[in-house]
Design goal:
By secondary structure, the chain is an alpha+beta fold. The chain is 20% helix and 31% strand. The chain has 2 helices and 6 strands. The strands form 2 sheets. Strands 4-1-5-6 form a 4-stranded antiparallel β-sheet. Strand 5 and strand 6 form a beta hairpin. The relative contact order is 0.31. Keywords: Electron transport, Iron, Iron-sulfur, Metal-binding, Transport. Ferredoxins are iron-sulfur proteins that transfer electrons in a wide variety of metabolic reactions. It comes from Streptomyces hesseae. InterPro entries: 3Fe4S_ferredoxin, 4Fe4S_Fe-S-bd.
């Protein structure tokens, strides 16, 4: 099972919450966040980051289905 995580850099407001919650998965690139490249294994921290993003800029997809952010 692989996840794909994307960060919409237009929506990203650079709060850094994702880097605080999942520092091994997200980095700041200038004033915007950068997520994992390619597919990655399931990780609850990724879902937490997507849930906590104030701009709703992080999306987590598994097998073509959006699983994060969670409602």
């Amino acid at each position: 099972m692989a996840w794909r995580v994307t960060v919409d850099r237009v929506r990203c407001m650079g709060s850094g919450i994702c880097t605080a919650l999942a520092p091994e998965r997200f980095t700041m690139d200038g004033e915007r966040s950068h997520g994992p490249d390619g597919e990655c294994g399931p990780d609850e921290e990724l879902l937490d980051a997507a849930d906590s993003c104030p701009a709703g800029a992080i999306t987590v997809v598994e097998d073509g289905r959006v699983i994060g952010p969670r409602d």
